[in-house]
Amino acid sequence: MHIRKMTGTEKFLLVLIVVYCIIVAAVNPAFLSWETLFDLIRSSAGNMILAMGVLVVMISGGIDVSFPAIALFGGYTATRLMMAWDINNMVFAFAVSIGIGLVLGLINALIIYLLKIEPFIVTLGTASIFHGLMTVLVGTTNIGASKLPTSYTSFGAAKLFSITDSYGAEIGVSVFIIPVILAIAVTWFMLYKTMIGRGIFAMGCSEESAKRAGFNNFHTRLVIYCFAGVLAGIMGIIYVANCNTCNPISLIGTEMSVIAAVVIGGAKMTGGQGTILGTFLGVLIMNLLNSTLVFLGFSASWNNFFIGIILLVSIGATSYQERMKNRKNFIYTE
Amino acid sequence: MGEKFKRMIKKDISITILACFIIGIMLFLAISLGGKMYNVRNFSSMAFQVSEFAVLSLGMSLAMMLGGIDLSIIANANLSGIIAGYVMCGKLFNTGNMSPAVVIFLAVLAALTCAALLGALNGVMIAKFSAPPMVATLGTMTFYNGIGMAITGGQGIVGFPDMFLKFGSGAVFQIPYVVIVLFFVAIILMFVMEKTTFGRKLYIMGENHTAARFSAIKNERLIIITYTIVGLLAGIASLMIVSRVNSAKVGYGDTYLLQAILVAVLGGVSPSGGKGKIFGVLLAVFSTQMLSSAFTQWQFSPYSKKLVWGAMLVIIMLINLLVDKKMQTVTAAAPAKKGAAAQS
């Protein structure tokens, strides 16, 4: 296994992160503490898992905006079932949520394949359908921290290893990092070591060529959207454990920030390009900006502004590079 | 007489389907809700809300007719509303000694210019940087939301002059001002799309970018102008919104995005570009507004409303697909039949 060189986007993002950390540390030395690092790991775990699913979908040329609805559906249903059947086991929660994610991802893939429309419009529709189905079938009650099954709280507070900080409190790397590492490993393996992964890249570059080369696009689509659904289901449980409440509307509207993070990381929406390291750095930058701009003295309302600037710069640079490459090959219509 | 009718229907089958759909809905609502639905007060409250949404949907369908999409239209409207608010409430420069009419005029001018510029930024990203429309408008949506949040800190701007508020909530001869504005916007857009070369070029480019470029159509200029018009429409909508709710803040109308896409698709605009009539979009807007009003009467929860919109989107696309397939088999069979008839 050879370590490949970093692409231009990844180098740019790495430099950006390092420069940003230096600036923040210079302004406010409290930034450089274990607590910040552990908080960052904890808060970006959910987004990282979702971003892996979105990355796989985007490499294949499609897009999926229904994953927060799937995550919400999975998490909320699992919690309600646990409360109704009096089971207090995290494995059960994960199993239910993954199952729901699988089924909903399957529905996405079927509709996209049968109706042959843009995946964006289809998943926009299915997002509303899933969310509506959840509120109709399962209910809309808000589940507060006191009523939540205790295994959630212990899962949310569990740590891999912990140290005591200067105030004597115990802080540590949250257990959330295990699903993240698992998700990244599985994505890496699927994309770069299996035939399905080659099929995903092929379909992203050109669907027709992939079909003629022998890839079954329908199978590839099934795998992609089910994978995204499963990851969304996992994230749903982590989200409930993180926030320690279960609320039927909270995740709706966060899809754009995950997609933005993946786009910052260098994945092209037209398909065929995208790296795991780039997505990782993209999510990292996004969460870094969201949680540590306060160290620089900016209030929380400035988050979107900086993220928007980085997003626009990244989109502009990537697209302009692609345009110049096309012009050199005398392609004037992209 | 029957022949002429058949020809009119065949000319644009999607508008016919849409018209049947609307007549069906109106009849159904008349039967089930009767007087609760069809009274003047209900219509007048619907009329105020439908105008701003209709203008936004017209903007979205214009972008979709070009083959792209504009996710930033709501953020654009919010930011322009905030700029108008700052000018009108005197926060940007001192307006104490100017007459209210001048202040309002300046604010309207500022909002429309700002909205058009923001739309032009979209166009430049898509045309000059070759960014895919979805990515570019996603980026600008985040950016415009960010500017709006940074300027206002999340709070709304209140305290608009009364003369301005009359625009949003006033009426002349029982027809609200906003409906009159919507009427003029729709007429102008219909004229531009059907009768001018600009409209023709837009349709051609939406259908096939490559063919358009090789037909001496300046693709990049067309894209920038179209997105500027979309931005201008967002600006007009923002003035309607701000004058109706008497506040300008970020995040108003986020649910309008899905609805605008649904309405555009329902109105016959194809997401891959090149097809769609302004009149169809207007019909779709009115029918969804009536459905929405009926949902409120039947006391659906907001979640169920979203469920219905999502389901309708998928079903409409399914119907479009089936109709397209049927039209293809019909047109493929016709020359074969003619050939067989000519031979025999």
Overall strand count of chain B = 2
- The overall number of domains of chain A is 1
How widely separated are the two ends of chain A? Answer: 35 Å
**Cα radius of gyration of chain B in angstroms:** 22 Å
Number of strands of chain A: 2
Give the overall pLDDT of chain A as a whole number: 84
Number of helices of chain B: 14
**Main sheet specs of chain A:** 2 strands, antiparallel
**Estimated share of beta-strand residues of chain A:** under 5%
Explain the overall architecture:
Chain A starts with 7 loop residues before the first helix and ends in a 6-residue tail after the last helix. Chain A is built from 13 helices and two strands. Chain A is mostly helical. Chain B is mostly helical and 344 residues long. Chain B has a domain at 39-252. The relative contact order of chain B is 0.16. Chains A and B meet through helix 5, helix 11 and helix 13 of A and helix 6, helix 10, helix 12 and helix 14 of B.
Keywords:
heterodimer; A: 334 residues; mainly alpha; ABC transporter involved in vitamin B12 uptake, BtuC; two-stranded antiparallel sheet; 3% strand; globular; B: 344 residues; 14 helices; 77% helix
The gist of it:
The complex is a heterodimer of chains A (334) and B (344). Chain A has 334 residues and is mainly alpha-helical. Chain A has one domain: Orthogonal Bundle (ABC transporter involved in vitamin B12 uptake, BtuC).
Write the layout of secondary structure elements.
The complex is a heterodimer of chains A (334) and B (344).
Chain A: H1 8-27, H2 34-59, H3 67-85, H4 90-115, H5 119-137, H6 150-157, E1 159-164, E2 170-174, H7 177-193, H8 195-205, H9 207-212, H10 217-243, H11 255-264, H12 276-292, H13 303-328
Antiparallel strand pairs in A: 1-2
Helix pairs in contact in A: 1-12, 2-7, 2-8, 2-10, 2-11, 2-12, 3-4, 3-5, 3-10, 4-5, 4-10, 6-10, 7-8, 8-10, 11-12, 11-13
Chain B: H1 2-11, H2 13-32, H3 40-65, H4 73-88, H5 100-128, H6 133-152, H7 162-169, E1 171-172, E2 175-176, H8 177-195, H9 197-207, H10 209-213, H11 219-245, H12 256-266, H13 278-297, H14 302-343
Antiparallel strand pairs in B: 1-2
